[in-house]
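Crash report, auto-generated. Payload:
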Amino acid sequence: MLSIETFVAISLIKTVIALFVLLTAVAYTVWLERKVVGHMQNRWGPTRVGPFGLLQPLADGVKFMFKEDLIPPHVYKPLYIAAPMLAVVFALTSIAVIPVGNSISIGGIQTSLQITDVNIGLLIILGVTSLGVYGVALAGWSSNSKYSLLGGLRASAQMVSYEIALGLSLVGVLILSGSFSLREIVDAQSGTYLGFIPRWNIFPQFIAFFIYLMAAYAETNRIPFDLPEAETELVAGYHTEYSAMKFAMFFMAEYANMITVACVASLLFLGGWHGPLFGPPLLQALLPLFWFGLRIFGFLFVYIWIRGTLPRFRYDQLMAFGWKFLLPLAIANLVVTAFVVAIRS
Amino acid sequence: MLHLILFLAFGVVCVAGAVNLLVQRHPINSALSLVVVMGSLAAEYLLLGAEFVAAVQVIVYAGAVMVLFVFVIMLLNAGEEERTKGSRVAMIFGIPGMLVGSLLITWVLLEHSGTQSVAVGALPGPPKTLGWLLFHDYLLPFEVTSVLVLIAIIGAVVLAAPPESARRKD
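Recovered output after restart:
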């Protein structure tokens, strides 16, 4: 048992490191997106600031901070100011329960590579992401502009609808692993089928995986589900009236949510940090982190790839797809999984 | 000790949110106060060791039900409510009546509930125990409740569907 001082110190250090890594990842996901979409559209993307435009995120950050923070006179001020903060706080909170590897010991203190291991980890992530909609909805309402309001309305309807399919798609995985703890879910995926196929949940739960991915794209308001900020019809949707750092906060929240989705998908369906370990002890300690990072990178790349490929849904198509296709499919998958598990045990 | 402090703190936040809900004149502020009430109730459940109930409270009430409330307020663009003078009878009898009623309930609960207080974690809290209780010991009440919910859903669909005459025009 740790003394309370060491516990607080370790938690603080882990939180600072996790937040630093997450925010850096958010900044460089923006860079990656601009670069990859640029190449897909036969452009170069950012090239001027630093080699390959690598310092572009820093330049953007500085620009956002020094821009004039304009508050339009017609907004409802308390909520207008609170909305971007809510969005970014809820987006960053989920990182607290995401494990990135097994435990390590430094100087005789054993600690897990996770800010806190709770036995309802997955539910906490679902809860926090479901609260994230308030940032978008309140931004849309408090801006007191028709485009923002339409964006906010679309966002709240879309997120409530797709949350159901998202939650149901995860229940299959929960039945297979019998736990809400993200660490236990990952541990349940160690080993192999038939000696060479890893025991990842994506193989028995491939339908759930695709439902999760599609519902999660809708939850994060990404193309082809980016109707809340559809720039061809709503200017910029819910963040039309925002400028400078407040606008940047919505951006950060969106990319942090993308990373959370990538983390949850890797942990639940792709075996988390499992992967071949080799080499000296130090390399063996770092490889799980690398494998986990590689999976997240893969998911982010698919996000960007889809953005560069697909057009936007029409709103009625979006609703029909969520309620009439994803939801029944998720329920069917759940029933079949439950039957198979019940017969086996 | 820390537990007790946190419990009291969230309790105060909860009551303050509930009072704010009544005092605020704009519907959206009231709705957000209700979100605060739901959130602090979830924290209270968590402190009592009912982690599953706490998470579900946040996901269902704060994350879904209240989002729909906010959605409707946004959709109707409901303005500030106007204060009526209020009936004097309500002021004279209502507030003391409420105070007496809540004190009475507290007293009854404290005196006649059998157990004076329960240690944290003594009641079923983990998802597994809860699932066993719901789907084994209390299966019949659970299923009856689910039928009730189903009836409510069907009723909502029937009420929301366009009337027969409107449909024939298509």
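Post-recovery validation: The helical segments of chain B are 2-23, 27-47, 51-76, 88-112, 127-137, 139-160, 164-168.
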